[in-house]
């Protein structure tokens, strides 16, 4: 039978470890939520900026990426994609980076854009669902 001092030390160590783990988990969850909210705000701001440069001429949507210096949308196979839909659900515009691919429509409008995780047109899953690569040692 361990002494009282040993049991108290062990109990204190276990309690401290539990508090540290719970605190770390809470900090992680709060920070993750804050970063995702910041990302959503950033994406909404970028969507509004893109919407402000879009022009509809005779049923054709044009977006001036050059004015905004958004090279990610301009190159075929680039890292950023943009697709604009008409009210009937048909695609009115695809960024050059998207080429002939399609992005799944998630809803929203100019006043309240919606941010969602969607699979990319090349079938690649979003970063949060990709398996992590480990460096070779």
Overall 3D shape: rod-shaped
User: What structural class do the secondary elements suggest?
Assistant: alpha+beta
Strand content: 5-15%
Strand order of the largest sheet: 1-2
Q: What value does the average pLDDT take?
A: 78
Distance between the termini: 46 Å
DSSP summary, beta strand count: 4
**Number of H/I helices:** 3
Question: Helical proportion?
Answer: 40-55%
**Uncertain stretches:** 130-137
Structurally, the number of domains stands at: 1
Radius of gyration: 24 Å
How would you spell out the order of helices and strands? HEEHHEE
What does this structure look like?
The C terminus is likely disordered. The protein is an alpha+beta fold. 42% of the residues lie in helices and 11% in strands. The two termini are 46 Å apart. The longest helix has 50 residues.
Task: List strands and helices in order, with pairings.
Layout: H1 4-53, E1 54-57, E2 60-63, H2 65-68, H3 71-74, E3 83-85, E4 91-94
Antiparallel strand pairs: 1-2, 3-4
Kindly summarize this structure in a few lines.
The chain contains 3 helices and 4 strands. By secondary structure, it is an alpha+beta fold.
């Amino acid at each position: 039978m361990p002494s009282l001092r040993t049991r108290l030390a062990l109990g204190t160590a276990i309690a401290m470890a539990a508090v540290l783990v719970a605190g770390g988990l809470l900090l992680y969850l709060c920070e993750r939520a804050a970063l995702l909210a910041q990302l959503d705000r950033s994406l909404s701001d970028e969507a509004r900026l893109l919407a402000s440069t879009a022009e509809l001429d005779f049923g054709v949507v044009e977006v001036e990426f050059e004015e905004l210096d958004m090279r990610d949308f301009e190159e075929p196979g680039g890292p950023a994609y943009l697709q604009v839909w008409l009210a009937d659900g048909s695609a009115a515009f695809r960024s050059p980076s998207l080429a002939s691919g399609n992005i799944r429509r998630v809803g929203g409008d100019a006043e309240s854009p919606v941010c969602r995780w969607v699979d990319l047109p090349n079938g690649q899953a979003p970063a949060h669902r990709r398996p992590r690569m480990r460096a070779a040692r």
